[in-house]
Amino acid sequence: TPIAHDAACIFCKIIKGEIPSFKLLETKYSYSFLDIQPTSKGHALIIPKYHGGKLHNIPDEYLIDILPLTKKLVHVLGCDLDGPTGEGYNVLQNNGRIAHQEVDHVHFHLIPKRDKETGLI
Ligand code: 5GP
Ligand code: ZN
């Protein structure tokens, strides 16, 4: 259960297992899962186990956990393969409707980019 949580928040419900998700990696501070409407195959979301709407609402101990977890996911999702297909990825984090945020629980998108789909998940 998130330390700070909102009973109506879909991502808090995902952390608590009240809404199913395709879980990837989890730590004491963070939870990651596949996006339900992926921009590309393997599109992942990384969220703090702390309910806060925007980046500046999240305590540092949670934020500090996010990038190492994202780095591990890069390997899990196979975004780190060198080669002629030019694999890479985007890490995105939106704050506010004007910045295209739809879910008001901070989340980082990890979006694999491939010239050729390699079927890694
Ligand atoms: P935003 O536009 O807020 O940065 O991104 C929200 C993301 O959350 C979207 O990419 C959307 O597909 C994803 N999303 C919304 N609801 C759910 C859900 O219930 N489960 C999962 N796995 N992803 C969700
Ligand atoms: Zn929440």
From TrEMBL:
The keyword Magnesium applies. Its cofactor is Mg(2+). It catalyses: adenosine 5'-phosphoramidate + H2O = NH4(+) + AMP. Residues 10-120 form the HIT domain. A motif (Histidine triad motif) lies at residues 105-109. The active site is at residue 107. Keywords: Hydrolase, Magnesium, Nucleotide-binding. GO terms for biological process: nucleotide metabolic process. GO terms for molecular function: hydrolase activity; nucleotide binding. Belongs to the HINT family. This is Adenosine 5'-monophosphoramidase HNT1. It comes from Saccharomycodes ludwigii.
